Amino acid sequence: MILFVSGCSKNLEDRLIGSWQMKQAWRQQLFGRDYFQTGYENGIFTFSENGDASFTGNGDTLTGYWRADRYNQTYYNNGTGDPESRSMKFLRISVVNFQQNRRIELEFDDFRFRDNWQEIRAEQYSLGNDRIYELIRK
């Protein structure tokens, strides 16, 4: 039996609660950005205080949950030859509409607030193919 216990930092939670719209997304490249459409730009993600989440768009409503928390990641610094640690924040969104056979699973390795907590810049790390998503508060 696996038991997963998660708690959110209240300040982090408070800043995420509300409605958000996907503004843009891109793959980070060596000399720029490769913008792409996620399919979620015309909808609204809503995060409730109790951890419930919904996505409403294109005539559909998907419901589920969201989780966010802080964690430390340790990595090897090639320059110094020493292990280093940095503090990060993860965000997971999981919503589904079984009747429409639709599911959205977004897992961000790190995110930060911008523009006085009115924008989220969330990142998915992948070797040489990092993806960045920007959401704006609605």
Uncertain runs with pLDDT below 50, 5 residues or more?
1-10
Morphology call: globular
Please give the alpha-carbon distance between the first and last residues.
Answer: 40 Å
Number of helices: 1
* Cα-based radius of gyration, to the nearest Å: 16 Å
Mean pLDDT over all positions? 89
Beta-strand proportion? over 45%
Helix content: under 10%
**H/E element order:** HEEEEEEEEEE
Number of strands: 10
Largest sheet: 10 strands, antiparallel
Structural class label: mainly beta
Overview of this protein structure:
The structure is a single chain. The protein is mainly beta and about 140 residues long. Helix content is about 5%, strand content about 60%. Strands 1, 2, 3, 4, 5, 6, 7, 8, 9 and 10 form a 10-stranded antiparallel beta sheet that branches. A hairpin with a 6-residue loop joins strand 9 (about 120-125) and strand 10. The chain is globular. The relative contact order is 0.21. Residues about 1-10 have low confidence and may be disordered.
Write the layout of secondary structure elements.
Elements: H1 10-16, E1 18-29, E2 32-35, E3 44-47, E4 52-57, E5 60-77, E6 82-97, E7 102-108, E8 110-114, E9 119-124, E10 131-137
Antiparallel strand pairs: 1-2, 1-3, 1-10, 3-4, 4-5, 5-6, 6-7, 8-9, 9-10
Q: What's this entry about, in short?
A:
The protein has 138 residues and is mainly beta. It has one helix spanning 10-16; strands spanning 18-29, 32-35, 44-47, 52-57, 60-77, 82-97, 102-108, 110-114, 119-124, 131-137. Strands 1, 2, 3, 4, 5, 6, 7, 8, 9 and 10 form a 10-stranded antiparallel beta sheet that branches.
